[in-house]
Amino acid sequence: MADPIVTARGVDIFYDTTQAIINVDLDILPNKVTALIGPSGCGKSTFLRAINRMNDLIPICRMTGEMKIAGQDIYDPKVDVVALRAQVGMVFQKPNPFPKSIFENVAYGLKIHKMTTSKTELQDRVEWSLKNAGLWDEVADRLDQPGNSLSGGQQQRLCIARAIAVKPRVILMDEPCSALDPIATAVVEELIDNLRKDYTIVIVTHSMQQAARISQRTAFFHLGTLVEFGDTKTIFTTPVDERTQNYITGRIG
Amino acid sequence: MPHQHIVKKFDKNLEKIKATIVEMGGLVGIQVNDATAVLLSYDAAEVDRITAYDRIINGLNKDINDRAEILIVRRQPMALDLRQTLAPINIAGELERIGDHAKSTAKRAHIIHNLPPEDATLDMIAQMSMITQAMLGDVLTAYANADIDLAAKITEKDNEVDVLYKQIVQTVIETLSKTPDTAESLIHITLIARNFERIGDHICNIARYVHQIATGEDLKASVDPADLRMDK
Prior knowledge:
CATH class of chain B: Mainly Alpha
Order of helices and strands of chain A: EEEHEEHEHHHHEHEHEEHH
Strand order of the largest sheet of chain A: 6-7-8-3-9-10
Largest interface: A-B, 15 and 18 residues
CATH superfamily of chain A: P-loop containing nucleotide triphosphate hydrolases
Strand content of chain A: 25-35%
Number of helices of chain A: 10
CATH superfamily of chain B: Phosphate transport system protein phou homolog 2, domain 2
CATH class of chain A: Alpha Beta
Shape of chain A: globular
Structural class of chain A: alpha/beta
CATH architecture of chain B: Up-down Bundle
Distance between the termini of chain B: 44 Å
CATH architecture of chain A: 3-Layer(aba) Sandwich
Number of domains of chain A: 1
Number of helices of chain B: 8
Number of strands of chain B: 0
Oligomer: heterodimer
Distance between the termini of chain A: 34 Å
Strand content of chain B: under 5%
Radius of gyration of chain A: 18 Å
Order of helices and strands of chain B: HHHHHHHH
């Protein structure tokens, strides 16, 4: 088994005095889709956001324990958070394109991180990103139109294109399909499966079926603790913990 | 016992499938019992009645398949629920095959009813029937109560059925040379014994499904198909 790309050890996360994550150890393997599941308020999104320090934006939120990406402690004070978020991209529940053109949405990260040296290189990288996000054929002739003129599913793929443009190691997805119709969801799920050849993906989802379809590893969170973590097939067929079984089968625990 | 589903109809749907399996198993048990009785006391009308069970049992088999199919579509069952939905499709198939063997047994009654009363094979057939009927009762109880200990004991009983089958075959071979005029009846006795031997096997398969529903573990020895491919 390959070395994990993300390692969490003894992670505790607090919102003021309320503990949202309790002593979580978790290894995320490269080029796999890892699904985080659990009831609302179980801490899965909080844990996801800890992987690229998005929780830093919440003043009352503090974390203890260790979170490493490729062996580097991302909570080390010397870490440049902006650079970290280029390495660990994020796609949100609701598509959130910038109020800019389709082209500028994808080019934005490349420009602020100064990742291209010429206009041609920038154009090539935007095209590459849109192609890898499965959107190029639909927008190639209207790159100058506003990003928010696209459909919901297209906007979400635009956000994925924006995330992969800077070639992150890890992509975090927080319920990326919850605002999409079933067809747009299927397109994004197909895209996620294609992306894992080159990226490591961690996805929070409320859909058991989606977690079962697209992930190779699944972690079940409950009341801030990591109850069970393992191969997706095992979690959804023969879970060990009764709490996992009760949750995935829709039983009263 | 697992907790109740939040969606109460989910529990009702699973319970209905379980109840239909138990109902089907009960009917199959009656069919096996009646088929054995008609061997010992031939009655053409009774054979027709036993044969007619087949349509009811096939109907229940279809009902179970339909209920499992619609439950998968509506509820997308996972883990224990998935096994409780899928296994009945197989269990109903096993029960339906047991019914076929009972029917095949009853249909042979008119050929073997003129065997001499001292023929030992009929007595052994009756023993096979008694054991398999007890096994069927136990496996349905094990299924209804998710009792894997009871399910595990069923295989041991099947060994007794297998021993009786071999004894019948041996007896038939020995008798054929002494009384060749009973050859047709004896061949059918062998086929009836074979029916009960197969009934025992189908019940063991159901016991395996009972274990699989409760634990997720398939006790059937199998090889990964990838290991069998020539071009691996």
